[in-house]
Design brief:
By secondary structure, this protein is α+β, with helices and mostly antiparallel strands. The protein folds into three domains: 2-202, Aldehyde Oxidoreductase, domain 4 (2-Layer Sandwich); 208-279 and 338-414, 2-Layer Sandwich (Aldehyde Oxidoreductase, domain 4); 287-329 and 427-457 and 493-711, Aldehyde Oxidoreductase, domain 4. The protein is built from 18 helices and 30 strands. The strands form eight sheets. A seven-stranded mixed sheet has the order 13-14-11-21-18-19-20, sandwiched between helices. Strands 2-3-4-5-6 form a five-stranded mixed sheet. The protein has a five-stranded mixed sheet with strand order 16-24-23-22-17. Strand 5 (52-56), helix 1 and strand 6 form a beta-alpha-beta unit. The longest helix is centred in the first third of the chain and has 28 residues, at 109-136.
């Protein structure tokens, strides 16, 4: 149900049409609409030509959010989703959430949009019905809708939505508009056709890399390969002589080359003669980081995150099971490397960026160029993968710096794959120490989990401060505030505890952490803290089951009395995988995250020290499913993404820099290595919860636990390697 307070309709006619908006403001102007701009949160625009446009405010990075959100609004508007034209929304303060702004992440898009996007469609439909009823001089209850057609149930006359759009724009909004009863759904839970499939198949879909503007030049940047280092000097004599090179200029993040084409810029970058100061991390290696993490666990300040009972007292003389789990840094490996195009002209800027945070890109370009945010238009492009990497804005800031030096010239900054590997914001490495004991009934008695890692928020804090700061704030002050917040979150290390609340009953439990930050830039990585805590908690739970001499599934179920949804997915996956009756080596893992509940069974085959993951069976409870096929595809993709992290060589630090450079030494899973993935969805009437990230945490422990069954080797370190 939506009230007048929650939903306002613009009284102005845009192109003679009806504009439905959650909030409508005159200042700042509403970007993007014909003849006057696009209303913030103006989800629907209906024109007299019967064009229905849905402006989606979340970033599409392959997760299917365009289809998902369009399905929600189409359901309530009573119009087939494929008949709605979709457009990415612009940046506006009425979008987004407090503090984090317009960022798309945390598997929240459908969850957070579930109510208000449906209400937008319901209210639009109610106003259109009222307009038709007025024209026919009948009661609104005598007007029916079906797939964009208004029908007079008295006379049989019909009108299209566009036929009454001008009249609808003059009407009062009803005090409330009820959304549909689920029994009446036509599309939610049933629609599986990707509304963006055609443009992606025929090549008309525009990703950031596809931007091509008249007179556009290509920029590349040579960055110090050592984290925290900087350029001392450079000789650009040879580079400037290369045909097609326009300029070589120092920017805050290194040395930039501007050229006519990517090939020329790439060749020119390699010809630069730069003297680097390696910075404070010179000499740092992965082995040193591991040693320092262990020292932090031993000597550092331990902070309790959450607890119950009394672990020390309950342990008593009980025999303790102890284990250490180790996880490496991880790169994102987005299919499309980072890029952004910026055109600056006469105090205004237009930006084309594949970003998860368009408002923060706007802030980054403002910081780089000095142009007020209100004069910067951001076009949020489709993305070839995000995974959290595109929540950062370093590439947009670089593009803004180069473009500011060349007003009137569109500048497209492009990263190479090597740039992407070596200058990522990585999933942090971590170490986890466990101690646990069983009672006389062979049930969990104590559970102690202590971890050491760095915060994924440290680097993001700078972008966050820039995003919320007004344009008038001096850059120096904004940077100072960013450093202050970075220092604070570095100490607090938020998000580290994600995934440590295990779905098992244990009266005596303590989860603690200490912080060690080696200075390697870190950021959000698909499922964030859950990605490492899911591995370690489900690995140790399997160890406890083995110590108890009990079946891993039965042992888990015995501790799930207070976790019915976790229990249901575990029972479902055990049934669908034929647990205990298969000849395959099976391992199980359960991990709730982002409001959803996932259980996985992995099947492996082993030959010597080599192994293959043959099949993965998944049970998922994500509440009400909007687009079933898209949910299944997201889980399949998450399994593959998680397997790359679990099986492929780890990123190594040497001399304060990333040792690898491309997929030949930092590979991802190949097609011939991909297992069969079978996904089973729990039927639910509960509001939707997360999907995009929830399939990552359980896959590594499920495989590790299967390998233990196959070989007797308990693997506690990623990547998984048999000896």
């Amino acid at each position: 149900m939506i009230t007048r307070r929650k939903f306002l309709v613009g009284t102005g006619v845009v192109g003679g049409g009806l504009v439905m908006a959650m909030v409508l403001k005159k200042d700042p102007p509403l970007p993007g609409l014909r003849q006057g701009g696009f209303a913030p949160n103006a989800y629907l625009q209906i024109t007299p030509e019967n064009e229905v446009v849905f402006h989606y405010d979340k970033a599409e990075m392959g997760q299917g959010i365009i289809t998902g959100l369009t399905t929600l609004v189409a359901e309530e508007l009573d119009l087939h989703p494929t008949k709605i034209r979709t457009e990415a929304a612009g940046v506006h303060p009425d979008y987004g959430a407090p503090l984090v702004g317009q960022i798309t992440g945390g598997s929240m898009s459908i969850k957070d949009s579930w109510q208000h996007v449906r209400e937008a469609g319901a209210t639009a439909r109610a106003v259109l019905i009222s307009a038709a009823a007025d024209r026919w001089s009948i009661d609104a209850g005598q007007v029916a809708t079906n797939d964009g057609i208004l029908k007079n149930q008295v006379t049989g006359e019909q009108l299209l939505y566009g036929d009454v759009s001008e009249a609808a724009a003059t009407l009062e909004i009803p005090e409330q508009s009820d959304v549909k009863n689920p029994d009446d759904y036509k599309y939610i839970g049933k629609f599986d056709q990707r509304v963006d499939a055609r443009i992606k198949v025929n090549g008309t879909a525009e990703y950031g890399m596809d931007v091509d503007l008249p007179g556009m030049k290509i920029a590349m940047v040579s960055r110090c390969p050592h984290f925290g280092g900087h350029a001392v000097s450079f000789d650009a004599g040879v580079t400037r002589a290369i045909p097609g090179v326009i300029d070589v200029l120092a920017i805050s993040n290194g040395v930039a080359v501007l050229a006519d084409s990517y090939w020329q810029a790439s060749k020119a970058i390699k010809a630069l003669d730069i003297v680097w100061d390696k910075g404070p991390l010179a000499g740092l290696t992965s082995d040193m980081i591991l040693e320092n993490q262990r020292a932090a666990l031993r000597d550092g300040k331990i902070k309790e995150l959450h607890s119950s009972g009394d672990v020390a007292a309950a342990s008593g003389n009980a025999e303790l099971l102890e284990a250490e789990y180790v996880l490496p840094f991880l790169h994102h490996s987005t299919m499309e490397p980072q890029n952004t195009t910026v055109l600056i002209n006469e105090g205004e800027a237009e930006v084309w960026s594949p970003t998860q945070a368009p408002d923060m890109v706007q802030s980054a370009v403002h910081m780089a160029s000095g142009i007020p945010k209100k004069n910067i238009k951001v076009n949020a492009m489709l993305m070839g993968g995000g995974f959290g990497r595109r929540a950062m804005t370093d590439f947009a800031h670089e593009a803004g710096e180069v473009a500011a030096a060349y007003p009137g010239t569109p500048v497209k900054l492009v990263w190479s794959r090597e740039d992407d590997m070596r200058h990522d914001y990585y999933r942090p490495s971590s170490i986890h120490r466990f101690k646990g004991s069983l009672n006389k009934n062979m049930e969990l008695n104590t559970w102690s989990h202590t971890m050491v890692s760095s915060s994924v928020m440290t680097s993001f804090a700078n972008s966050l401060i820039a995003g919320v700061s007004p344009s008038a704030a001096p850059n120096g002050m904004v940077r100072s505030m960013g450093r202050g917040l970075s220092g604070l979150v570095k100490k607090m290390a938020p998000i580290m505890e994600e995934g440590t609340h295990i779905p098992y009953a244990c009266e005596n439990m303590a989860v603690s952490r200490t912080v060690y930050d080696p200075g390697i830039p870190t950021g959000f990585w698909r499922s964030v803290g859950n990605s490492f805590n899911g591995f370690v908690t489900e690995g140790f739970m399997d160890e406890m089951a083995h110590a108890a001499g009990r079946d891993p599934v039965e042992f888990r179920l015995a501790h799930m009395q207070d976790f019915p949804r976790d229990k249901k997915v575990l029972e479902l996956v055990a049934e669908k995988s034929d647990w205990g009756n298969s000849n395959a080596h099976q391992g199980v893992a359960v991990h709730p995250s982002f409001g959803s509940f996932v259980a996985m069974v992995a099947e492996v085959s082993v030959e010597g020290t080599s192994f293959m993951v043959d099949k993965v069976t998944v049970a998922l409870d994500c509440g009400r499913v909007v687009n079933p096929d898209i949910v299944v595809m997201q889980i399949e993709g998450a399994v593959i993404y998680g397997l790359s992290a679990a099986l492929k060589p780890a990123l190594q630090i040497e001399d304060g820099a990333v040792a690898g450079s491309n997929f030949h030494d930092l590979p991802v899973l190949r097609m011939h290595e991909a297992p069969v993935v079978e996904v089973h969805l729990v039927d639910s009437n509960i509001d939707p919860t997360g999907v995009g990230e929830v399939g990552v945490p359980p896959i590594a422990p499920a495989v590790a636990n299967a390998l233990f069954v196959a070989t007797g080797q308990r693997l506690r370190e990623l990547p998984l390697q048999l000896v």
